[in-house]
Design goal:
Layout: E1 5-11, H1 19-22, H2 27-30, H3 35-49, H4 57-66, E2 72-75, H5 91-108, E3 112-114, H6 118-121, H7 135-144, E4 151-155, E5 158-163, H8 165-168, H9 170-173, H10 182-201, E6 208-213, H11 219-222, H12 226-230, E7 235-240, H13 246-254, H14 266-276, E8 286-288, E9 302-309, E10 317-322
Parallel strand pairs: 1-2, 2-3, 5-6, 6-7, 7-8
Antiparallel strand pairs: 1-9, 4-5, 9-10
């Protein structure tokens, strides 16, 4: 390691549950009209994904108590549980995100950088097809929560860049947006892509990029930007979230090339369409930051601590820190 190591703390998918969201028990199943699909979703949640999505707030406090003096903190999306499926335009989701950010900002102040996850802006519910992206959620993130959809910080030889994955991958989400908001979303995407292009244009040949992109579904769309494609060899790592577990990342790689599935609802269509191009993720040297809780089946959550040599002479060193579940709190 060089003479000036820089300590970076990386969290993702906190899914903090405020008081109002905690009142929405069984929210996902209630959004599904088909009884068979409703049962399937409940079983999936109970045995595999996450039995109680509202039971893990203490994990954020655990991280804050452990990590008192990082030089920089990146939260890679999904602050709330998004129980209305429309992002932070929903009052309950906004309350959860506000509570989460209050704790993070109290602990880390201006060291904190936040990327947008899909639940910041909204997305259709699993099988139920309720909800989706809302412009009001975009506005609330910027104005109500004071988090920027794009950020770029220079750290010596490194460019740390955070992008809004749902906007980059807007083509996957078009069926979920309101027709009255379509023109604005397309304009927001074009503006966002231009900011990404300009940032990558500023990367010099001897410099490196650490990219933060919540949903890996956006990575093939980033590769369509000539400035990104031309400097892809300089992307040392791309930190993603969204998948919650290393198991899901491994499964996604095995399913790469899967044709789109159109008969199980829009969410399944979107996810399977993303997997069709998942082989392109490898160009970005993906590193998954799981959710703090992981998933029910493996209880494999945690966070990353990264050490950067700002001269760029030594690659970034990543250390994973698991967060064990505590009986009686997590179940």
């Amino acid at each position: 390691m060089g003479t000036n190591p820089f300590q970076l703390l990386i969290l993702s998918d906190i899914h903090y549950a405020g008081n109002k969201e905690c009142l929405r028990r069984d929210h996902e199943a209630r959004a599904i009209e088909n009884p068979a699909l409703r049962l399937l979703a409940r079983l999936y949640r109970h045995w595999f994904w996450l039995r109680d999505p509202f039971a893990h707030n203490h994990l954020l406090e655990e991280v804050i108590s452990r990590e008192r003096h990082p030089a920089m903190v990146v939260v890679n999306g999904d602050l709330s549980c998004d129980t209305a499926f429309v992002g932070h335009s929903d009052e309950a989701s906004f309350e959860s995100a506000s509570d989460c950010l209050k704790r993070l900002r109290t602990a880390y102040g201006e060291k904190l950088w936040v990327t947008y996850g899909d639940h910041e802006l909204g997305k259709a519910s699993l099988f139920g097809a309720r909800g989706g992206l809302r412009c009001a959620s975009w506005d609330r993130c910027e104005q109500g929560l004071n988090i920027a959809p794009f950020w770029h910080r220079r750290l010596g030889a490194y460019h740390c860049i955070g992008v809004a994955s749902s906007v980059v991958a807007l083509r996957l989400f078009l069926p979920e947006i309101l027709e009255s908001e379509r023109a604005r979303w397309l304009s927001l995407r074009d503006e966002h892509v231009e900011r990404i292009r300009a940032a990558f244009d500023n990367v010099q040949p001897q410099e490196r990029v650490l990219l933060f992109c919540h949903d890996p579904s956006a990575l093939p769309f980033l590769l369509e930007i000539p400035s990104v494609a031309g400097r892809i060899s300089q992307v040392e790592h791309t930190v993603v979230g969204h998948l919650h577990s290393q198991f899901i990342l491994r499964l996604s790689r095995k399913l790469a090339g899967l044709p789109p599935i159109h008969f199980l609802g829009n969410s399944v269509r979107r996810m399977s369409s993303a997997l069709r191009n998942a082989r392109l993720w490898e160009h970005f040297r993906v590193l998954l930051c799981p959710s703090l809780a992981g998933i029910e089946r493996f209880k494999d959550g945690g966070y990353w601590r990264a050490t950067l040599d700002l001269t760029g002479n030594v690659p970034v060193v990543f250390h994973f820190h698991p967060l064990p579940w505590r009986r009686g709190i997590d179940n």
